[in-house]
Amino acid sequence: MKVINFMGQRKLAALFSAVLLLASIASLAINQLNWGLDFTGGTLVEVHYSETADLNAVRATLEAEGYTGAIVVSFGTDKDVLIRLPKGYSDSQGAELLTRLQEAYAGSVELRRIEFVGPQVGDELREQGGLAMLLALGLVMLYIAFRFQFKFAVGAVVALVHDVLLTLGFFSIIGMEFDLTVLAALLAVIGYSLNDTIVVSDRIRENFRKIRRAEPIEVINISLTETLGRTLVTSLTTLLVLLALALFGGEMINGFAIALIVGVAVGTYSSIYVAANTLLALGVSKEDLMIPVKEGAE
Length: 298
Known about the structure:
Elements: H1 10-30, E1 34-35, H2 37-40, E2 42-49, H3 55-64, E3 71-75, E4 77-86, H4 91-103, E5 109-117, H5 119-147, H6 150-174, E6 177-178, H7 180-210, H8 216-248, H9 254-272, H10 274-281
Parallel strand pairs: 1-6
Antiparallel strand pairs: 2-4, 2-5, 3-4
């Protein structure tokens, strides 16, 4: 088997990651995220058309009537439409919206529901979502420190923070709406990236114990080469499904699919370079992974 010298490019990879992280953090600090209705508050209006609804025509009608920032998506069937109005619109304006849609449509338009999400609820959701991610990272670090070794725990958490920040930075830079489906995708990214990192870490631990005379860089290169096939097959098959969801899944899950595509791509990269790079920076050695000998054992 030909061993690929992954760690030969570790300094270049570290520089690349640092540039992306700085760009992400700068964008998050300056532009912040384009918070969706789930976080900012606003009004939900669900209507039912007698025939198939033309979403482009609905959007054009709302824009002409001055409903700026309205998001129009199919909801369930092609006759049901969900309209999201940003913060600042009242329930009465939501009811008036129905009149405007009826005037612009030859058939009948039936109002199914109007719901108002207050900003206090949005703040609570934002806070709980952030706490959920922090709790996930903390538990991950504890598990890997117990299951492997503390240096592996630090490497895994650095990789996870790297993946989350780059995914958030991507949404901040392109200005795509950040809602609860994207938050769910971020939590899924943590799980995916962690799974990939643990597979690589397990092989590194195994090879440190098996290949006694090799240097840490050589052991890590061998381990990454041995797991490369599994990593690429898993990532590519996952990306194929996510691309299909992004292209044909509709607007309701578009943000979810895009977040996972970015997260899976970044997570695959971080499992190879960020986690392993962190191990080398912390000075991992075979002594860290030696099985302790019990007292009295011969």
